[in-house]
Amino acid sequence: MKIAAATLTLFASASAFSPSSTQSRQTAVSATADLTGLVGTDIENGNKIFDPVGLAQWAPVDYLRKAELSNGRAAMLATVGWVWPKFVGTFDSNDVSTTDPIDAIMQADPQWWAQFILLCGTIEAIKYRGEQEGKSYTGEGDAVIDYLKQWNKLSAPEKEKMRLKELKNGRLAMIGFAGFLANHFIPGSVPGLPEGF
User: Fold this and answer.
1) How far apart are CA 38 and CA 51, in angstroms?
2) What's the whole-model pTM score?
């Protein structure tokens, strides 16, 4: 009985290493078709969609774009937050006494973290409510957050140009912030960045 169970388990696990079926190829082709109309293809990636790992076959394309924009926006703010104390200084504070961003994280009062998490949750709730009302935070319709009421004043080509600018700036900020972190934890790993930046 044990030998039969072991043999069945062996044959079942061997199928995990068999060649992929045509279904996954069809999924990859349909995912690539979903990518063709997306904003974000330009000269820096050969006017093609940049998806070297093939993530589009595992998650909905609109979800991936929302994640890219959210992470890009967060990285733009994080980049400003990393550079600001080095050049401008810090606000008057009794609990944070350093301009090193990683050390400042550990010195911040837990009350500040609670307020920050509430702020982030409020913004996410506003985005969610706006999506339920048919608005968009990816630029494909009425904007969820547009306090200055400027988005609807732009023409369609201007909106397309602005969406591409935001996407490119977000991508650059994600790469830049990753470089700041790498240089912080591995000094000298990023050429051109001084040690301790």
Assistant:
1) 12
2) 0.76
Q: Where are the beta strands (DSSP E) in 41-105?
A: none
> Using one digit for the tens of pLDDT, what is the confidence trace for 25-74?
444 445 556 666 677 777 777 877 777 788 888 888 888 888 889 999 99
User: Do residues 110 and 134 touch, judged by C-beta distance below 8 A?
Assistant: no
Distance CA 125, CA 61 (A): 22
SS3 of 27-56: the string is HHHHHHHHHCCCCCCCHHHCCCCCCCCCHH
Dihedral class, residue 46 (left if φ above 0, else alpha if ψ from -120 to 50, else beta) = left
Burial 57-69 (b: 16+ CB within 10 A, else e): beeebeebbbebb
- Would you call 119 helix, strand, or coil by DSSP? helix
In sequence order, which residues have a C-beta less than 8 Å from that of residue 8 and are 6 or more positions away?
A: none
Give the H or E element holding residue 122: helix 110-132
